[in-house]
Amino acid sequence: MKQPTFSNSIGIFCGIAILLLAVMAMLLFQIEDRYQIGLLLMAGALCVVGLPSRWQAIDGWLCLIALYEGVSCSWAACPLPASRTAFYALYGLISYFLVRRLLDTGVKLPWSASYLPIGIALLLSLGSFFVFRNSVLGVGFPDTYSFRFLFRPLGYITNVWSEVLLVLLGWICLLRRHALLFLIGALVAIWFSFSRGAYIALGIYGIIGVLWWKPRSAKWKLGLTVIATFLLTYGLCPAEVQTTLQMNRTVSQQQSTGSRIHATQAAWDAFCERPLVGYGSNNFTYAVDATLNQDSTRPYTSFAPNIVVQLLVEKGLVGTLLYAGLAVSLIVCIGRRRNEAESRIIACTLLAVGIKDLTQATWLSTPFTLWMSYVFFAFLPRDEEKMRTVSLPWLRYLLPAWAGLYLLAWNMPSWKQYLDPTAHQLRRALEAMEQPETRSEAARLLTAVEARHPEDIQIRYLQARLLLWNGAPDSAAAVWQPLAERYPRNSLYTWSLAEAYYQQEAKEKALSSAVEAIRYTPRLLTSERVAQWQQNDTAFYRALRHRLYALTPAPDASPSDYARYGYIARWCGHPQAETYLRTALQRLPNLATPWHLLGDDRKYRLLLYGAFQQDLSKAKLPEEEPLSDTRLLEMAYAPKCQHWYGLDWTEGKE
Predict the structure, then answer these.
(1) What is the pTM of this model?
(2) What range does the domain containing 500 cover?
């Protein structure tokens, strides 16, 4: 090992190690570093200690990936989400070189101090799990599997949290000393996630560890701990474990599997549109929006179905080859130093996380797991004979200067508008649409947004809405009709088309469109438009009621379909309403509204307010507000605007 080159180096190196552990804790607990002080301090530390003098292939691939992520912002469909990925790629690269530099010194560093934030995180996770479980069982549900979405330790959703735990498991095994208690906690927390992907990944981690790790004591320790924690989890939650292991038994599991298959098919279509460089990092949902996220009955998700399609769609063939080159370099590096315990632990960890990401891609979208990957890369033992000396003094300041540019841009409000003015223009357009005298300006702004983002179908909807408000229902219908035909399950389009037809006096067409919209979004029955029809056009209202009364679920209807038909049937006074609602809950008990309609407000409160609401039984139920056109648009478009353009719809609202 290289020796320190200056007298006070030990204190400096220990301070940098503590800084890195503080960054780890900040990312683990998702603490917002608004001004990115962590990156500033790490860039300064890199100026002090410099880059490693000897490099190998992994170093080059990581630099190329960081460069590609930064440059790809210039052609990304939505530059803002791409810039976040580029930022964390640079963040990870600087951390990687710092860790490598620290390890090269041979100084004993306080890595075990990371047990403090890890221990706190595991205690919070396990403690909150039992609070969550008691709340779910306390309202009368038999088990917690269908309600995992209510359990969000440290703010992570279940699939992301299970991957974070796999990374923590690898780090705990890497530290080894005094690790048994933390190992048990991490394993129990993974089992408590009841994630199919996490179970598969952990099983492979355990099997490979038992067969491959050295020394024998490490094998026994890992194998026995995995088995013991599994038996403990099975003893505490037998129904949940059995459901998880059966993989595709419940309706929610089947729906999840089906949606991922459908998303993979949509991803292939998107990849064929931009095969070379892709749509840009963190742009997967934008790329597949036209084929995947136009169904009012499906929730919006920002994750790709697996990491392979995410890389192809977002990075294209060029970016995917860079990541493939990194993967090959890692395999070669691990193969050369396979007798080293660190190599085997890191290999098992990266393999487990990769397998988990084949079930849902969260690795590259989660700052903590992405950053920890760079730390693991730095901890890989090096083959000194295969490394090359790099003697370029200016490299020492290149990365900090690069980081400085990122920090400057990050903290300049005008930078985001310069990179992508869509959020600013879209907000102005939405405000201008409200006033007749400014609607020409709204039309100009929407045209500019559409030219920049032609794949955003919702912009066409807004342009048609503007036409309708300008007294041109024929023109609006001409835009909405193709959208409604292509996306018949999107209530935003069919409901608006019904309004345009109604203004044209084409009431039969309006009636058909209104029925289809209500079929997939029954809350539209609370809208002001339905109330106006009831008051001002009783014939149309009675015809609507008659059509809705005649709706019945198809033989292959899903539980959510039964819930929607039950809502409609109850509004119409249909005798089958309760049957539909109970059928829905029997197959999928985590549906909230049917419990309320059946009068079981204890379960409804749990699903509405979550498992951690204080004194859940006394929580006041909210009044059902009319579903306005604005609210319908917000439900369909606000999450997308936030993710793609950084537009916060709640900004400025009380």
Answers:
(1) 0.94
(2) 432-645
